[in-house]
Structures are given as C-alpha cells and as structure tokens.
Amino acid sequence: MTRLVHKELEGGIATITLDSPPNRNALSVRLLGDLEDRLNWALAEPEVRVIVLTGAGTVFCSGADLKEQRIEPARGVSDAPVTASFPEIMTLIWESPKPVICRMNGTARAGGLGLVASCDFAIAPLTASFAFSEVRLGVVPAMISVPVLRRLEARAAAEYLMTGEVFDATRAQEIGLINRAVPMQDLDATVAHYADMLVKGGPEALSITKRLVRDLPSVSFEEGLRQMAALSAQRFTSEEGQEGIAAFMEKRPPKWC
Predict the structure, then answer these.
(1) E strand or H helix at 107, and its extent?
(2) Mind listing the pLDDT tens digit for each residue in 65-101?
(3) Burial tier of 160 (Cβ tally within 10 Å: 0-12, 13-18, 19+)
(4) Which helix (H) or strand (E) holds 17?
(5) Contact status, residue 256 vs residue 202, Cβ threshold 8 Å
(6) Three-state DSSP class for residue 23
(7) Which of 157, 195, 217, 219 could form a disulfide bond with 152, CB atoms 3.0-4.6 angstroms apart?
(8) ∠ at Cα 41 (40, 45), nearest 5°?
(9) CB neighbours (10 Å) of residue 163?
(10) Burial class (CB within 10 angstroms; exposed 0-12, middle 13-18, buried 19+) of 75
(11) Model pTM?
(12) Contact in structure between 58 and 110 (CB atoms under 8 Å)
C-alpha cells in the first residue's frame, strides 16, 4: 500500500511530507498512522537534527477526513477515527527534543491548524488561508485547542475559534499562529534559513531551550531565577557547553556542526 506520508533526510534535516492531495491531505486513519510512524523515525534517527513538516499539493492540511467521521449512532465517541492517534501525534511534535518547523505549502483548516500550532516554527505563503471551521459543522476545535490556545492571543482565539471565519497569512502572523508569512517564491529559502540556524545550535542546548521557552513562564520569578542559575551552571560545565566554548575560542565550528 502506498504511503501517504513521505520522509527524506539531508544535511541533518528530516523532511516529512503529507502526500494525499486528492483529499487535501486530510487527517485520515491511514495518513495519521503514516505520520506517527515518520515522526517516530525522525525522533529516533541520530542523524536528524531538525524536522520539517510540510505537504504535497496546494493545501497543507484540510483537517479531519469527514468521510471517516460519519459513524453509526450505536458506536461510541471513542470510536471517532480522528481521535485514534492525533493526540499522540501532536504530543510527539510538541514534546520533540528536536526543533520542528512547519513549512505550510498552502491552506490549512481545523485539525490541520493543530499540526501548525504544535510545531516550534511555522512559515506560510501569503496566499495561504486559515480557518477553525469546526463550529460551522456543529463540532468543536477540542483537541487542537490544546496547542492552539498556547499560541494565540486570547481575543483572537475567541474570535476565530468561535466564528469559524477565514483569515489570511498576514493575520495568522499577527495573532501568533505562525512565525512568518512570505511570498510563495520565498517559502523554501525562509524555511531553509530557520533550519540552517537551528542546525548550528547544540542538540542538547536546543532541546533544553525548547522546554525552557514553553515551561518557564508558568514559574514564579524567584523560583525561575533559582532554577535557571542552576541550569546555567550545569550547561557551562557540560561536555556540549565546553565544546561550544572551545570552538568559539579556537575560531572553528563545534563538533555538532
């Protein structure tokens, strides 16, 4: 059976591509299974330093495969296909010790925006459009709200999750859903710029800094300083930290580059 998600690895950068254009890269059971498999591969592969998540065709991801969501009344809620592995997939991306960049090849809707929000970075073409369309179908942006509400401004979240209104890439950048909205011809160069910068960072340092950015705002000021003083001392004396300092002093690339 043909895979609906492809992988490639070059220069420490793993590219994972949703490849189901006929249904706009919808989150079908097959695609979710393939995506989980590819993410686990990228996380386990020592050569992978950065993960880029993208799509084939003109749409990044249209959300849940609605054909699969039509269930018999006698079946339980737990049988809704999209819940099968989607929470695990968003968790893999969110918790990944390796930076994850979303290269939005085009439009995203509903569940597709859960993938976007779960990634550390998201770059979209100016032509892309966005919508949390769930309420217009009588359903709720439930699972995706976990990463999405950690990205969006509160009033913007209420506006777009409750109305289902379509908005453009410039607005998506303004409200914190994506990092950059760029002309389509600049998309690959912008993604490569982010990936190349990330590869220069120490792998352990990147992993720790990702957790720091995510978790530290919820810690009190005094406790945060206490924890960060200990972390700073630990990293300066770590093998990776000592290698980075030596490389800087000796004007050479560190071993991880």
Answers:
(1) strand 107-109
(2) 888 877 665 555 555 666 678 999 999 999 999 999 9
(3) buried
(4) strand 13-18
(5) yes
(6) helix
(7) 157
(8) 120
(9) 13
(10) exposed
(11) 0.93
(12) no
